[in-house]
Amino acid sequence: MTAAEQRYTSLLDPLAFPPFLSCPDEHVYDHQRGSSPVQHWCFLGEIEEISGIGRLCLDVKDREGITVRIYFYLDRLSPSVREIHINPPRITYPKHANVPSHLVQKGYTIAVLYAQQHRWLAEASTGIRIEDGDMVQIFPCSLSELLSLGDRILQRVPQSKTAAELRTCGWCGEKAASLLCCSACGLAWYCNKGCQRIDWPGHKKDCKLTSQVGLLMKQHWSHVEPHFKFPLSTKP
Ligand SMILES: [Zn+2]
Ligand SMILES: [Zn+2]
Q1: Which residue in 155, 158, 198 sits closest to 174, CA to CA?
Q2: Most exposed of 15, 58, 85, 179 (fewest Cβ within 10 Å)?
Q3: Cα dihedral 101→104→107→113 (10° resolution)
Q4: Ligand of minimum distance to the alpha carbon of 212
Q5: How far is the CA of 99 from the centre of ligand 2 (A)?
Q6: Do you find a cis peptide bond into 88, omega within 30 degrees of 0?
Q7: pLDDT in tens, 112-166
């Protein structure tokens, strides 16, 4: 394994990708804001319900099965026109490039940087309050698909003879020691450029998702400054 591959952080890492109950309470975090946060972190949850007139509201489930309510308060940074449609009610999507309505779908996974446990006193409930759309990215796959993709990225086989038998051409199924690797995602193997070209229309979507998830895992989660934001920079 090369040094570059060792830098990948597991999506199950309790500090980098904490479930909701391990995210800091906002009052604790506020108190520490004068100093640097201890490290970067990112909450992951699968969208289960979408609602919200005036403000987008998502009910998401984290990997521990806890359902968390997320409210978007992007007015301050990205003012949006408040549309109210009572009958039928229409959802208001924030006008932010990271939260396009085609990605706000049940079964997709939302990533929230620096998510904190917020208490809504009126509702006597806790959840996540999002004030900055740059802190959000939505992945077009379920949380379990995201986690298994993360596993496959971690297990990416290094170039060695023993690993060769695990390699199969993504198009024709040929097994060989000297397959070409898709340079964009590093997870697809091909006999030659021909097989890669024929498989591309089918691989394109997986390739983009794998690259995005790989980028998330490749960040220096244990470094403190500067703060991350989405879309993530490809330069570490
Ligand atoms: Zn092939
Ligand atoms: Zn690829």
Answers
A1: 198
A2: 85
A3: 150
A4: 2
A5: 25
A6: yes
A7: 999 999 987 777 778 999 999 999 999 999 999 999 999 988 887 554 445 555 6
209 Cα to the center of ligand 2, angstroms: 9
Question: From ligand 1's centre to the CA of 204, what distance in Å?
Answer: 16
CA gap 188, 169 in Å, rounded: 8
CA of residue 171 to ligand 1 center, whole Å: 5
Note the pTM of the prediction, 2 decimals.
0.83
Ligand 1 mean position to 192 CA, how many Å?
Answer: 6
What is 3-147's CATH number, 1.10.357.10, 3.40.50.720, 2.40.50.140, 2.40.30.170?
2.40.50.140
Q: What is the CA radius of gyration of the chain?
A: 20
Phi (first) and psi of residue 91, to 5 degrees:
-75, 140
Question: Ligand 2 mean position to 212 CA, how many Å?
Answer: 11
